[in-house]
Sequence to fold (341 residues):
Amino acid sequence: MTLIFLAAALVLAAAALFTVSPTLFLPPAILLEPPFAQLLALRAETAVVLLVLAAVMLCLRMLCRNRIRKLIVALAAAILFLCSGFQFSVLLKRGMSAVEKISSSASSHSLGQIVFLTYNTKGGATPPARLAEIIAENGVNVAVLPETSAADGRRLLKLLAERNLRFQYFDTHTDRWTPAFASTVLLISPQLGRYVPYRSVFSGAKEARVSLVGARPLSAAGPKIVGVHPVSPIVGRTDVWKKGISGVYAMCGKDSNLIIGGDFNSTFDHQRIVGARCADAAREAGIGGLGSWPSSVPNLLASPIDRIIHTQTKYRGYEGKFVRRGDSDHYGMIISLRIKK
Fold:
């Protein structure tokens, strides 16, 4: 029986240590395969599970009469507690300081500040009228809206115009017979200058099934802006997902002034495994430890797969918040990016 206790404790301890540094146990190629790819997106849940298991082990220790078993269980509980604490410390370091209201800088109506919204609307579950409210209330001047049909995007454009808010409109040219999850809409305020379509940033997007829409400024001052939505890493299309996120993150190395937003179906931890050096605006803004999916749980327990990243050279995330309107299974995320001083 003691050997069984020892084996069980070793398995739990090894699993806990794996969550702390998976790359010490497995090569990157394996970590991007199920079930590890999914587990990487669940850092908060992992922390909670480890904490619960540690508490269970302590309760089990109280029931043990054998000294050796007590010691084994206590050591396992200690490792579980430490690993859980590590996970929570990572979340704290990445930030949990969401603001109630996005503030405006003195240059908020120029390229000095970009208030960026990304919101997966789940095919209109968060309808255009609610999106118009969010954009107007928060001074948003760039919006990336995955899973939003062109029809809803045009309707939103009209609702914003009724509020005297003008936006330049771009979409993925997804036809009306295709499900909305394949469509992404991009809105850019004329405050940032005049923009035109930009499609050369990721030439393999179609093969990787990445819903992608981009725009570039006619002047050299503004950033290129791209909205993305790779497929999710479900069994059967993991290879497509890996190709998609690799291509998305590789864009950071192709341009010196680029901002990418959307539903990445991956997190900062996946980005590190891919080896990309994109700056995470959520971490810079102090909300990187909070997540956006699913919206049925608090942000602390949600996975941070809705992201805004950039090429580090010009902008920095300043502050951020989450919003929820309608019935989408995602939270919307708003981040204020400001020019570095």
